[in-house]
User: Fold these one by one.
Assistant:
Number 1:
Amino acid sequence: MRLLLVEDDVSIQQFLKRALFEAGYRVDTASTAKAGEALALEGSHDGFIVDLGLPDLDGLELIARCRAQGSAAPVLILSARRSVDERVRGLEQGGDDYLTKPFALAELLARLRNLLRRSAPPQYEPTRLQAADLHLDLVRREARRGDHLLQLTPQEFSLLEYLCRNEGRVVTRTMILDHVWRMRIDPATNVVDVHIYRLRNKVDQDTSRPLIHTIRGVGYVLKTA
Amino acid sequence: MFSKLRSQLIATAAWRISMWTTLAFALGTAVAFLIVYSLVAQGIQERSDTWLAGETRVLAQVFADTPRDHLYLRVREIAELATHEVPEGRSASAERITSTFFLATDSMNPEAPLWVGPGPKEAFIAAIQKAKVVPGAPQSIRLDGLGQTFRVMVREQSGKTLYLGLSDRGAAGLLHRFARRLFAVWGGMFLLGFVISYWSARGTLLRVERITETVARIGTEDLEERLPEPANSDEISRLASTFNRMLDRIQSSVNQLRTVTGSVAHDLKSPVTSIRGTLESALFETENERWRESVGEAIEHLDRLLLLLNTTLDLAEAEAGALQLDRAPVDLSVAVAQLVDLYQPAMSDRGHKLTLDLEEHVFVDADSGLLYRMISNLLENELTHLPAECLITVRLRSHGGSAELVVEDDGPGFPPEIIPHAFERFVKGKQSPGHGLGLAFVNAVVQAHDGTVHLFARSGGGAMITVSLPVSVLQPS
């Protein structure tokens, strides 16, 4: 997978390039919209990451030009601006997802994966999920650990489902709030953690192989090993 | 109630100013009136003294070359004239001589003095002797028996002594009436002076009072407002314009502060993003548990900083009126229920009991993202500030075209000194954790949605925050 990163802030560009490289992507970088446009027109990228606040041209304008040239690759917009209006405009101009600075790297990677998968041919929607001896029946909304049926609230089931779908990948609190509760809020308190602790008490109780792990500073991950 | 009104009146500057003005005015007029009074009294006395001196001279001549009987008639004539002389005596009958007396003694014949006058001569002689009357200028003698004062002129002539007395009863009466009138006029002037000075002081001070009220309102509500500046430039207009200049300066400082806070927060975002990203990459590069722990802790601290930056920026945007609202009908009941569902476990972990009382399907036209964050801030506020094991009640009602969301608790409540400022930025209790931005954000969002938010101290302890938002007109069925 080859990505184009257009970002004028050198330090952000550097760490993103490294992180994306480590995540298995090949990355071209540009610091201005002009340079970015030139690279984009080569037409060999699977996705774009575009900062809106570029020195020579607005990022939105760059996206519009690429779209006009017939580029269909998904675009993830980065912006320091948080207003809803900006977000809506970005998505209307041809952006596919929107991330405001500062962001968690884990979230950027998750969104990027999501975008690239979306542009790939659709996969069938599973009705069952499994991780080690944890089984989720998405139709009956039941979860079992081994033979034991877990007594989960609907909210806890959704949370477990989200962790399961991202098995092996770290999810942040913001991502959990966004996907499980469908809200974009920034709680200063430990509201999400309390839900995780409760879920963990039900899922990982009486077992020597805990599935839900805390990654301090980032979020949570469900992993088998 | 009346005494309260009176004490309120006495507490005003208008009252004090007019009291002092009136006092000075009263003293001044009293001194002027006393001078007038004494001049008049002196004039009257001088006039009667001149009369006495003239008559005494005439009588002495007559006494020298007239037989005694003739002199008697002559004295009666003078007495009659004296009734005209004395203002009070005019009404008295000339037959009854009351206002003058005449006494002539002869050293040759001391046993038979000549006496014309009211009453027995002994009382007069005694009074004359007591007052040690000497020839020359007229003197006053006091007749205790008659209860009046006479002016007496003495003249000595070849062994004979003549006394002519004139009662000052008339003069005293005149002066008494004069004084009464002066006093009445003075009293009237006193009252009138008080009324005029109170009225004008009050008129002036009411303008000051209006300035005070307006400035107080401007200070708490809106820095845009200005005092009216009348065209004439008296002291109070100048006060108003000085206040306006001061408000200009305050407003520009506040705006500068907001801009600076905003741009600092904005400029910090990029470096913080790259620090956070670098740390996060590092986290996955090492297997060393202790390193991961430290890096994770650093990221968590950074996240708290980021939250503060973001809230500051949101607030700056909201307070500058730059919030772009993407409004659509939102079911407030569902929003509250979802957020309560999210916060419930954290609250019960702290031992709080949460009571929900939500009317269903209350729709408001709102930007759903901001609305959710606003409600979450209210719940965060409860979670952050309450001591363990409190009762929290969340109520939602719609009445009269407005949706009212109430969040109340039985905790210690807000410190009374911050209640009027609880919705301002960075205002928080001394013991309070947090940055003091949560409620400011609530206020900014609610105001952007044409709503109001109020904070009350509950009578039984605890705090109550009510948010009122206009209900949606286009309620989806």
Number 2:
Amino acid sequence: MEERLKRLKNAMNNHTFRQVEFTDIHRQKINQQIEQLQEEDVSKVLLSLLNQAKTGSELIQLLHIRGINGILNNEGTVFTILHEQEQQGVLESYWSENNEKYYKLTKKGQKILQKTMLPKTSGELSVKQLFHKVMPNEN
Amino acid sequence: MEELTYSMVTTANPEELIDELMRTYGQEIQQLVYAYVHNETIAEDLTQEIFVKCYKSLGSFKGKSSIKTWLWRIAINHSKDYLKSWYNQRVKVEDDFSYIVEEQRDSIEQKIIQEDDDAELAYAVMQLPVKYREVIYLYYYEECSIKEIAKLLDINQNTIKTRLRKGKALLKKMLEVPQWKND
């Protein structure tokens, strides 16, 4: 049996895995999902930060502090999201005397924030649970 | 295999890191998952979920094991969770269809088996119960050491050795008395 099992790699490659192929299309599909996740992450956190007015650069700093993956090497996305949210009436912006642009939640934005706070907590829980399961010896 | 190091994990853009992981290990992961679930479509879906899960969990990777080990553990646990899941165990509609397909496939595979020793071996391994199949797969296909398997599966080394022995005994039985010779 031992001798025969030495051929298992060959055997499975030629038979079992003949139809199993991880293609570029699969990879791109996953990349798209991740990109979407990143945007969702960033916009959720942005909402939670904008109960009080803040400037774009303050927001970026705070996102970095929170370790939000989606903005690493890609800070521009913050402004894209701010712009979109403003157009949807979630945020409003104004210029201060020092000529800095501030962003703040509108009433509509505050309502949305209250609703999204719940799923956000449960999301964090599930990641913790995952890690408890995946690497109990490593944390 | 350890070309992806901890420093890369901490410095690289997470999006690029996952992309790199997929390029390096995507095929191996999908095969590993297939070895558990024995279904191409499900293996594709689960592989997708596994890499998204990795992305979400990247912040908690501490570099205490290699990133490959970490990725393998996520993949193995995810595949097993699927096998244990309510969906997999209760949704019988799909089973009914696959039963028919399986029957056809069996007879085709039996034909091939008569001609090909390797096919016979590969087929037999995929018929093993999961707890034996996984250790046989990791040891003989992936060429992991007993110690590595113990780490991947969170099971002690003696249990792994026992399962390897029993798995081999089962395989021997399956391969000694091929069904078509009963005719």
Number 3:
Amino acid sequence: MTLPISTELICFLVLASIVVIGGIGVVLLSNIVYSAFLLGGVFMAIAGLYLLLNASFVAAAQVLVYVGAVNVLILFAIMLVNKREDLAPIKGLQVRRFVSGLVCSGMLALLIRVVVKTPWAVPGPTAIGEEATERIGEHLFTDYLLPFELASVLLLMAMIGAIVLARRDVLLEDVGTGEPVDQALLEKVKTPVLTEKTTL
Amino acid sequence: MQGFTNGQIPIEAYLLLAAFLFCIGIWGLINSRNAVRVLMSIELMLNAVNINLMTFSSYIDGELIRGQVFAVFVITVAAAEAAVGLAILLSLYRNRVTVDMERFNLLRW
Amino acid sequence: MPEMGALLLSSSTISAPADLLNLGLNAGAVAPEGVVLVALLGTLIVDLAGEKSAARWAPPICYVSLTIALLLLVQQWNAPLEPSFLGSFLADKLAISFRGIVALSTLISLLISWRYAEQSGSPVGEYAAILLAATLGAMLLCGSTDLISVFISLETLSVASYLLAGYMKRDARSSEAALKYLLVGSAAAAVFLYGASLLYGISGTTNIKGIGLALITSPTPLAALALVFVLATVAFKIAAVPFHQWTPDVYEGSPTPVVAFLSVGSKAAGFALALRLLIGCFSAFDEQWKLLFTVLAVLSMALGNVVALAQTSMKRMLAYSSIGQAGFVMIGLVCGTEDGFAAMVLYMAAYLFMNLGAFACIILFSIRTGSDRIADYAGLYQKDPLITLGLSLCLLSLGGIPPMLGFFGKIYLFFAGWASHQYLLVVVGLVTSVISIYYYISVIKMMVVKEPQEASEIVKSYPDIQWQTLGIPALRFALVSCVLVTAVGGVFSNPLFRWANNAVAGTPLLQDSIAIANQQFLG
């Protein structure tokens, strides 16, 4: 085994084990802050895998967007809603976890079987390697122009929507009649649903 | 430019890793009681998809790398979805002061 | 770069992006969407000037742009068929019909939204902008022929829907509905993506047609798995049982005009996606997906209509009834014949008018009374004959009573199902139709038959009917026109039949599939 090959293999194994262990940690750790940091680690390891796959642009995008934006956003959210909350125990929780674990491992077994059995069309055309970034740009302005433009609408709308939902100021009166309003559904519930709030 | 050849690592290795990550994501989605953790599980699933796409792009479609473009779009959408999800979570937290999925039961499931 | 050029030359069979630069985009095909986009930006700009300005200017901008979009769609109807955006989009007659249904449903949903949004104190300009973004996504979804554009338009529609569901941000129910919708929807999107990535891995392309060809030459177990993943997401979008759990919650917690859009516009886009993916991409697995969809259709019709019997909230009842209605439409999908597809298109159009008419009535009722409980409708006919009449006609049409529009749509669906030997589906459809008539009629009975002293407290203290308030005239216009089309459309339904048949006849995708099915039948 030559040096480059074994280096690649070692890199893959290290990154893959970070992804696997980190992924398990994200869903299992009881402290959500640790989970969030582990998630950042998983994202970084996946970016490393992209580098192994010779896709430096997507690796950079992964680091910038996932680690730099999504993960930070998640940490912010945890800080904002981080009230010590003792979750009330639920009956049959362990059974549910176990059963869903069985279902998921069954699905994993199915996926593994299918992935191994399928005759993949490898080796495909030679990878273009470092010219990938240029090729992505060409794609974005030719055959994927429509989704590219639509993605900008999606981002604009997500931004506006997130601001509308998260900002605090509330319209105090009906524009049409000038009556007071409360930004709730018009169909009121007769029983006070928010009694839980006071008991916390 | 030095020609890069894949093949040292079999394609199945990447695909199995993605399948494993996807199943972890699903398990977390079902079992997490903290709404933020559910969002994290969804991010794990999307990353599993991205590993798949990047692998196919490199091994099967190395010349046109449509999978890389697809992955870039997935990353974009994931960011938008996370932002919207956290905005909704914040507005819900203001109303209910909890992030426990089991207590979001004003509407019957 | 010499290397790059050599590379392109060596692969002349695959058209590399650089070559494609010379080809035309044929971007005129998305002109209607362009108009919607301009309106989206317009509503945002008038909203900058304050809430009063938004309430004044956003409605006309939306009306004008959606009308222009509809006119452009009509103009496209007879235009020669060319793929646009280098194969990302195809404006065939099927796409045009469904885009028309989506645009019309947005127009009517907006007409019935204004008063509701203003009375609850929600920012109107942003509301319209987000709804228009959802429309944009749904319209592009109807014509997308590439997995990436399918995914992005699906997500535009979904993310906008999550935002709209949580728009009443001071109401815990609305936020909760939005969060549940977001979590389930994003999970469904991730599952769809996993299936899409497998399809890409099998075929090495993202074009739906290309994938379809690759699957025909080598139908592997992996492709069947991808089918299951993709199908689950499609079923989620059209709310087929057992992927329906989100529907009643989201419908109950969301603002009612949003529910009106979700139950028609979003669903129509879901069916267009189902047609494109299942027929264009999974034709190699024809028997398998038809079997799966038969099961989904039977479950949807049965569960949707039976559970609707037990509901006490009007919105929740309509949610379950919409699950049942989606089951009826699936009959046409499973048939796979010319009549089946035409019946699907026709029933979606009929469903647009009758469902939005019903929603206009319950929105008007909740604007006046602040309630959506079925019991509160008791004795309404003495206080508000218009709502009573409109709701009765729309519900009768949803139940399929002649001579309403819904009756003809349903009969056509059942006829198509019977003709292609889907006896189980037709029998289940007939039985569940009878059940649905029972609960629709019981609402009507509640409104009409009760004596004045039996009327509910809310109806007894019913406010004076006013038509001058801002936004109410638009609501009345939408209500009256939907009810008129529902009631009279049945008698004059010939143009609709012709339109639906034309739509199917002018769609190469569907024609190919029908031709293959006929060959198999003969051979």
